[in-house]
Design goal:
This protein is of the alpha/beta class and about 110 residues long. It has 2 helices and 9 strands, in the order E-H-E-E-E-E-H-E-E-E-E.
Length: about 110
């Protein structure tokens, strides 16, 4: 499988990357946190290591640590605007439960 981006997410990431300059792409990962176990982490990918898996979708490189990939493989990243709020959202087929606030998930 892979990590994919909606057109909205890809457009937003491309905009961020252009304003930032010398950046490889988007780094997507997870961290242990919250009441359900894991939370998504998004950052700029400044480098690629031997432990990384790289995907490309809609002109954006997405870099994922191989250990995190087991938890998020198949995830679609979206960028959603609702009124004054805007945020990345994730459709992860591996999720078996989420906390009530939606900040963490388990697999």
């Amino acid at each position: 499988m892979a990590i994919s981006l909606t057109e909205s997410a890809a457009s937003r990431v491309r905009s961020y990357l252009q304003s930032r300059g010398e950046t490889i792409g988007l780094r997507l990962g997870v961290t242990r946190t919250g009441c359900s176990g894991y939370s998504y982490v998004i950052n700029y990918a400044e480098d690629i290591t031997d432990a990384d898996v790289v995907f490309e979708d809609k002109g954006v490189k997405v870099v994922v640590d191989a250990d995190a990939l087991t938890l998020i493989d198949g995830t679609e990243v979206d960028f959603v605007k609702s009124g004054l709020n805007e945020a990345f959202s994730f459709r992860n087929p591996n999720v078996t439960g989420e906390c009530g606030c939606g900040e963490s998930f388990n697999v």
